[in-house]
Amino acid sequence: MSESLDHVLKxxxxxxxxxxxxxxxxALLPDAHNSEPSLVAAAHEVEAAxxxxxxxxxxxxxxxxxxxxxxxxRDKIHTKLNLEMGNTREILDxxxxxxxxxxxxxxxxxxxxxxxxxxxxxxADASLEETIQALQENGTxxxxxxxPEPEQIAASAALGTDxxxxxxxxxxxxxxxxxxxxxxxxxxxxxxxxxxxxQVNAGHGITLSNLPMLMHMPYLAELNIGHSLVxxxxxxxxxxxxxxxxxxxSSYSSVSVS
Length: 258
Ligand code: PXP
Fold this sequence. Notes:
By secondary structure, this protein is of the alpha/beta class. It is built from 10 helices and 8 strands.
């Protein structure tokens, strides 16, 4: 059973890399009865540790999450499902059938190791708005994964999305040696998005080391974290790594602009 911890800042746990580990052994044996690790078990463990939602990215190349995972997790998780997806007809059709609670539209490039940049909403064609509307009319709240740039936030608000997820990758890379400039961009983007009426989420590259600085960002509603949680889970268990992250996040006060 999931514990309902009443934290202000919510945590979405991305379990793609649990699937990466499974695929490393079982990609060619998808029906093996022992194809561990189980994604449902991982989801239940992080939910019991206090996660507010489970995030998965059904990529076009199906490198980690498989179609059946999406349906199974939608049925069996206790919290909310956030489906990251590229804006393609094939993936949209699956999302419309699965009806995740949330969908986060991301750019997708087959060569990338992980999602590298934000969606270029400012230069998007009409299909992006159509996808947002189709998902919303189907009961899914929509987020756009964007770089912290004024034109991307303005374009996101103009398209009628519910939320933006600010790409924290550049900040995370820079935070090793400071990251003040990148942090200021995130802060400004968060304020702009909030003033435009959008829910402000953030994600990519967040770790226990760079999280304290992000706690000074205003108006944050949710963080989406994957790699660091799964990686630390090897040493302290998924439950332990989620609890450590939530403990740091618990100090968050959304009005503490500094
Ligand atoms: N948010 C989005 C939109 C992503 O694409 C990813 C990576 O899958 C994450 C958050 C999580 O990033 P990380 O695995 O670096 O925590």
